Amino acid sequence: MAENEIRDIFVIGLRNAHAMENQALSIMKPQLKRIENYPEVAEKLDRHIRETDGQIVRLEEILDGLNEDKSTLKDLALSFTGSMAALGHTVAGDEILKNAFANYAFENFEAAAYKSLLVIAEAGGHGAAVTGLQANLAEELAMAEWINDNLVALTTKFLSLREAGETAKV
């Protein structure tokens, strides 16, 4: 495959990742605003929102280094769909659980995107991008692992709150 073709694929992937991270913010921020009975989830979500802001900066730096811009249209479209997805769970009696399931899936989706981008970066000779992409990947994997490690405790707390007659509100 020609080097310019790999570059084009890489740029598209970076733009997609940028939009994906904006979508993640549009999912996480509304969740954070609604959390009342799960301070450990709120703390981790708040921290990951800040990490996501940093991931966006890293992606923009990589795109800048390639003299490319982000895709504003993709950013807007995925942010909108993320907001709609977050809104969809608010009517559920088990919103906290549905959010955890969706977040776990999304974190793994993001990790897969970064693994793929790392392969493309190496194939295209874009070594300068590797450190930033590896940092983003590590943060996504850490968040997915945290959700996985805390899902039993979260579900147990949800059941306990419901049993006590509390709303178990997110």
Please give a structural write-up:
The structure is a single chain. By secondary structure, this protein is mainly α. It is elongated. The chain has one domain: Ferritin (Up-down Bundle). It has helices at 3-34, 39-65, 72-89, 95-123, 130-163. The relative contact order is 0.17. α4 packs antiparallel against α5.
Short note summarizing the structure:
This protein has helices at 3-34, 39-65, 72-89, 95-123, 130-163. It is an all-alpha fold.
Defining key terms:
mainly alpha; 170 residues; elongated; single chain
How many strand elements? 0
Structural classification: mainly alpha
% residues in beta strands:
under 5%
Summarize model confidence as the mean pLDDT.
Answer: 89
- Helix share, percent: over 70%
Largest sheet: none
CATH topology: Ferritin
Second CATH tier, the architecture: Up-down Bundle
Low-pLDDT runs: none
CATH level 1 name:
Mainly Alpha
What string, H for helix and E for strand, traces the elements in order?
Answer: HHHHH
User: How many DSSP H or I helices?
Assistant: 5
Total domains: 1
Cα radius of gyration in angstroms: 18 Å
Give the overall silhouette: elongated
Name given to the CATH homologous superfamily: Ferritin, core subunit, four-helix bundle
Gap between N and C termini, in Å? 49 Å
Organism: Rhizobium bangladeshense
Pfam family, one: DUF892
Keywords: Coiled coil
Coiled coil: 49-76
